[in-house]
Amino acid sequence: MKKETVSKRPAFTIVELLTVMSVIALLIGLLVPALNLVQDHARNLQQRAQFHAIQVGIDMFVAESGYGTYPPSNENDFPPYDPILGQDSFSYGGAQKLAEALVGYDLLGYHPQSSFRSDARSVDGSVTPPQPYVVYPNNPTRRDLEARIGPFLDLENANAFKIRDIYRTPTGLNPENYVLCDVYAKRRHSGKKTGMPILFYRARTEWYDQSYDSPAVPAPANMPGTIEDDIYYYPDNQELLLLGMPEDNTVRHELADGINDWQDFERMILNPQIPTNVLRRPYRAGSYILISAGKDGRYGTADDITNFDKKE
After folding, report:
1. Which of 97, 87, 85, 88 is nearest to 124 (CA)?
2. What pLDDT digit, counting tens, does each position of 54-106 carry?
3. Nearest to residue 266, comparing CAs of 211, 225, 202, 224?
4. What is the C-alpha end-to-end distance of the chain, expressed in Å?
5. 110: helix, strand or coil
6. pTM for this structure?
7. For the chain, domain boundaries
C-alpha cells in the first residue's frame, strides 16, 4: 500500500507571535494618547458650547427679567449689610446667583422680586415697614409660578445640581442652593455624576483697574490698587473656592490655596495686550467672566476653560 504523506500546516513561531504582539502593543501605546487628546479637545469644545448657551441665557435675563443688568456676583456680606433683610443665613456668591438668574432658585424660573439670598427671601414693599418674605415657596401656587420669568437655560443642558450633590460638607454654604456645573463630570459621594461649579464674576464697571498692588503710574482716586476697587472682585466666589476638592477638602484650588490668591486670579484674567504700566485691564472688563475648573477639577490651573481667549 502506498503511504499517505501528511503535510505540515504552516504556523507562527513563538518569536513571530511575540513580535506581532509587540507591534500591536506599540500601536496601542501610540494611539491611546492621541485618542485622549481627541477626547479632551471634544470635551473642551463641549464646555465652550455650554458657555455660549449660558451667555445667551444671560442676555435673555438682562432683556426679559426686569433686573436690568447682568446677575450680581458679590457674596452676601457678613455681618449684616441691610437693616431690613438682616444677615443672610449662608454665603451666597457668583456661582449660586448665576444659577438662580438662569434657572431659578428652585429650577422653576427666576422670580423678579428676588434679592438673591441663600434663603430665598426678599422685601415686601407693600407693607409698612417693609418686611422680608419668602420669594420661592416650597409649594408654589399658580400665582407664584405666573410671576416667574424663564428659565433662560434649558434644564437638560444646564447641568444644575444642588451643592450637597457635589460636596459632602459644604461649610458656610446652603447645601440646598443650586449651581451650574461644567461638563467634566465625575461620580460624587451622592452617587451623582457632576462637574465642578461654574464660577461667575460680574464686572464692576464703576472701576477702571484690576490691581491688588499699587498701580505703577499715577492714578485717580478711584484706582487705589486694592481689591476693594478692582473691576472683578476676587472674593465673589471665595466660600465656594475654600471648600477645596469634593473628594478631598484638604486639596486646595490654586485660586484659594492661601498663597498669592488674589494675584493668581489677577494674572489669570488680565489682558496682556494692554501694557500693565499703562493700565491693568482684565478681559471682558465691561461685562462678566465665566470659569470652569477644567479636566483636573481645580480652579487656577492651566486647563481651566474661560469665556475669554487667554493670550500669552
Report:
1. 85
2. 999 999 999 999 999 999 999 987 655 565 666 788 999 999 999 999 999 99
3. 211
4. 89
5. strand
6. 0.84
7. 45-306
